[in-house]
Design a protein that fits this description.
By secondary structure, the chain is α/β, with parallel strands linked by helices. The protein contains 13 helices and eleven strands. Helix 2 packs antiparallel against helix 5. The structure holds adenosine monophosphate (AMP).
Length: 326
């Protein structure tokens, strides 16, 4: 079944002179790596094809991965195959002109919300969309070409979305496919320095988080990064959002939340968990995502408190009904 879909995707790319690649809003290493990686594979295999990634979103953290393409006319979209990667529902696609393309292919590893593609390849158990692109490459290895640059993009997404290969979705296949990418002689030391070195100020902010984080009786940790805190530490929205990563390793805390003040009174929520699944909580608060990594939005401090209470009840219940959690 999956192999039929993969063959359909291969054939669609093979016969399209022009391909446009799309990803989700609030870009991350996985959606950037997957689109740039697939673009690299298509270019290496069929140098005559035109391949575009057009996206207004920028990320300081991911700037080392390079810029995207310049805007093009609607005519170019209309004559292109569109491939949307790492997006569960169409309204989260960062460039909404994707709908001008035909046909449209969806490649995703999130909980399946909407089959917006003419061809849909969704595998919820994959640790990253980049793992799916690596798998696609491995299935058609005798026909596709890859190079160091494309492999580095794909490896980047595999690394970042799996928390350096530590989350639930990581399988033997994940590591075999990562190995296939590493065979392309990726400069691991430089890549890790780009991804994991922090500025002095960012570490000061981390210290602030450890000083000010809160916990609930049931085992939920959270921090609210208000506008004032963002100003104090000179944080942009992206660096403020990184607060979530500081809360991940606390024993007995199975769910952790970062609330980030955004524009227009919105408070962006990042939800993470281990053992227990928290996507249903994200879905209740205007969001969604993966079982253990989701995003949501709340619109007031009251709603923020409700979400924390829901998470607390959910984790308490999980702890009562399960053993083996840490
Ligand atoms: P984030 O905390 O933004 O890194 O999001 C964690 C995961 O949830 C990512 O895979 C996102 O694509 C997904 N996600 C974030 N926000 C939403 C949302 N509002 N609706 C659906 N999925 C989301």
């Amino acid at each position: 079944m999956i192999n039929t879909v993969l063959s359909q995707i291969f054939e669609a790319i093979e016969k399209s002179p022009s391909v446009m690649l799309f990803r989700h809003r609030r870009i991350d290493g996985d959606c950037v790596g997957a689109t740039k990686g697939l673009k690299g594979i298509i270019h290496a295999t069929w140098p005559e094809k035109k391949v575009y990634i057009i996206d207004n979103e920028k990320s300081e953290y991911l700037s080392f991965m390079g810029a995207d393409d310049e805007a093009v006319s609607d005519e170019v979209y209309k004559n292109a195959l569109g491939i949307v990667i790492d997006v569960a529902n169409a309204d989260r696609i960062s460039n909404q002109k994707y709908s001008l393309c035909s046909p449209i292919i969806k490649i995703d590893h999130h909980i399946d919300r909407e089959a917006f593609g003419d061809i849909n390849w969704v595998e919820e158990d994959r640790s990253s969309a980049c793992e799916m692109i690596a798998h696609f490459y491995s299935v058609f290895q005798n026909k596709l070409k890859i190079n160091t640059e494309a492999a580095t993009y794909i490896y980047t997404g595999m690394l970042t979305d799996s928390g350096r290969f530590q989350y639930e979705g990581v399988t033997g296949d994940t590591l075999r496919l990562a190995g296939l990418m590493l065979d392309q002689k990726i400069d691991i030391e430089t890549l890790n320095a780009h991804l994991y070195m922090r500025d002095f100020d960012q570490l000061k902010f981390k210290a602030f988080i450890y000083e000010n984080m809160c916990q609930t009786p049931g085992g939920v940790a959270y921090i609210h990064v208000t506008k004032e805190i963002q100003a104090h530490f000179h944080l942009n929205f992206e660096s403020a959002s990184n607060a979530i990563s500081s809360l991940s390793d606390i024993k007995g805390i199975l769910c952790w939340l970062a609330f980030i003040d955004a524009e227009g009174g919105e408070i962006r929520v990042r939800l993470r968990s281990r053992f227990a699944h928290i996507n249903t909580i994200a879905e209740k608060y205007h969001g969604g995502g993966h079982a253990c990594a989701s995003g949501a939005t709340v619109y007031s401090l009251d709603e923020m408190k409700q979400l924390i209470d829901d998470a607390d009840k959910h984790i308490s219940e999980y702890k009562k009904t399960h053993t083996g959690w840490l």
